[in-house]
Amino acid sequence: MSPLRRRGRDGQRGFTLIEVLLVVVVIGVVMGITVISLNPEDPARRLLRERDRLQAQIQYARLLAESDQIEVGIHLRAEGYEFLQFRQSDQRWLPLQDDPALKPGKAQGVDFSWRDGDAAAAQAGVGGKPRAGSQPDLMLLSSGEATPGVIRLSSLDDRRVAPLELSVTDLGDAYPSEDAPDARQ
């Protein structure tokens, strides 16, 4: 090699391609973490996702109740809900643990509430017994009947976000309130 070229190589200082790519990857990861921490999930999108998930679980629970001939209930509580099964032997509602699709739902920043379609039914459980303890707000019976009413999902993070509702018919069908058969008139 010529002395001129050799001197050029020795005199040059720079970064290798791998070093440049490593810096770009590190910057990308840091920016991704920053964006996620500064921009949490949109509360309106979270409500929509939770409503759709709960709607699918209600439809599944309805089919389970009818096919397995069991009584299924849904107990709504702050930031979540759980599915219950009525045990005939001691006349109690117990958490439904046999089905992974109906495990307790927790939704960070979402408040669930229930408005019963029939005020008299809200005061009684299966067989007209008073509700106490972990009792369902909504029941899906093995006969194909259900407690009609409305599940309301509200954002705890941002009160400016309009609440969403899920209407449940007396046959256990669950519809977003704007799509419910009664709302179409």
Précis, in short:
The chain has helices spanning 3-11, 17-38, 43-68, 119-122, and strands at 72-77, 80-87, 92-95, 105-106, 110-116, 138-140, 149-155, 164-168, 174-176.
Q: How many beta strands in the DSSP annotation?
A: 9
Question: How many discrete domains?
Answer: 2
Oligomer: single chain
The level 1 CATH classification of the largest domain is Alpha Beta
Summarize the helices and strands and which ones pair or pack.
Blueprint: H1 3-11, H2 17-38, H3 43-68, E1 72-77, E2 80-87, E3 92-95, E4 105-106, E5 110-116, H4 119-122, E6 138-140, E7 149-155, E8 164-168, E9 174-176
Antiparallel strand pairs: 1-2, 1-6, 2-3, 2-4, 5-7, 7-8, 8-9
Short key terms for the protein model shown above:
185 residues, 24% strand, alpha+beta, 4-stranded antiparallel β-sheet, 2 domains, minor pseudopilin epsh fold
